[in-house]
């Protein structure tokens, strides 16, 4: 069974933009990365609903990222994580988890 996701315009989901040392390598790491990114999308979505799209987290004083930008960044990371897991499925390695 082939699984496919359509990337957003201009996005690279092959791990591009991710430092090599952070890329998940094993099937377990790739699934763990997917789970982690799902949680981050949930967190960003919740903050956007609670505080609004234009609000931002004042704690990391070096970031001016509002909630809509944060959610968009996390969705990009989630699409990358989905691609990693799709590769496991498409290569018949899902039983290795």
Count of separate DSSP helical elements: 2
Q: Which of globular, elongated, flat, extended, rod-shaped describes the shape?
A: elongated
- How much is the average pLDDT? 85
**What structural category do the secondary elements indicate?**
mainly alpha
Are there runs of 5+ residues with pLDDT below 50, and where?
1-6
Total beta strand runs: 0
Strand portion: under 5%
Task: Output the radius of gyration.
Answer: 15 Å
* Helical amount: 40-55%
Please give the largest β-sheet: none
Secondary-structure element order, N to C:
HH
Span between N and C termini?
17 Å
Which structural traits does this protein have?
97 residues; mainly alpha; elongated
Question: What does this 3D model show about the protein?
Answer:
With 97 residues, the chain is mostly helical. Helices cover 51% and strands 0% of the residues. It has helices at 27-51, 67-90. The longest helix is centred in the middle third of the chain and has 25 residues, at 27-51.
Write the layout of secondary structure elements.
Blueprint: H1 27-51, H2 67-90
Helix pairs in contact: 1-2
What's this, in brief?
The protein is mostly helical and 97 residues long. It contains 2 helices and no strands. The protein has helices at 27-51, 67-90.
């Amino acid at each position: 069974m082939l699984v496919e996701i359509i990337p957003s315009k201009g996005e690279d989901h092959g791990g591009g933009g991710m430092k090599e040392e952070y890329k998940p390598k094993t099937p377990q790491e790739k699934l763990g990365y997917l789970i982690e990114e799902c949680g981050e999308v949930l967190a960003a979505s919740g903050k956007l609903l609670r505080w609004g799209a234009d609000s931002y987290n004042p704690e990391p004083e070096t970031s001016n990222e509002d909630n809509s930008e944060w959610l968009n960044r996390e969705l990009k990371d989630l699409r990358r994580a989905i691609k990693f897991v799709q590769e496991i499925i498409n290569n018949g390695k899902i039983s290795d988890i």
